Amino acid sequence: MASIEVFRRYLVSGRVQGVGFRWFVEREARLIGVGGWVRNRDDGAVEVLASGTNEQLGSLYEKLKEGPRAARIDLVEVDTAAPFSGYKTFQIEETR
């Protein structure tokens, strides 16, 4: 049975900028095998858009709640995202 591709948007709040959070997310997402991007937001949060299987995105969610050592994760909001293409791997995007 083929795996169904799922699309999710995560918004991570806390001390998540200036602590290597985007690089942490990029590394973990690539290891898990999801596509998409991570970027800082002007409001101090970090936004993640990811595609993969439910299992892969569940693993990513657990990593987002953990974060790198220097980070403090207060909240990880999860929403279903509209399907997107063009991201076969995972990358860091510019701040928005």
Summed up, what is this model?
By secondary structure, the chain is α+β, with helices and mostly antiparallel strands.
Can you characterise this structure?
It contains two helices and five strands; from the N terminus they run βαββαββ. By secondary structure, the protein is of the alpha+beta class. It has one domain (6-86): Alpha-Beta Plaits (2-Layer Sandwich), CATH 3.30.70.100. Strands 4-1-3-2-5 form a five-stranded mixed sheet, with helices on one face. Strand 2 and strand 3 form a beta hairpin. The longest helix has 13 residues, at 54-66. The radius of gyration is 12 Å and the shape is globular. The model has no long low-confidence stretch (mean pLDDT 94).
CATH architecture: 2-Layer Sandwich
Radius of gyration: 12 Å
How would you write the strand order of the largest sheet? 4-1-3-2-5
As a percent range, the share of strand residues is: 35-45%
* Gross geometry: globular
| Alpha-beta classification | alpha+beta
Oligomeric description of these chains = single chain
User: Average pLDDT, to the nearest integer?
Assistant: 94
Query: How many structural domains does the protein architecture include?
Result: 1
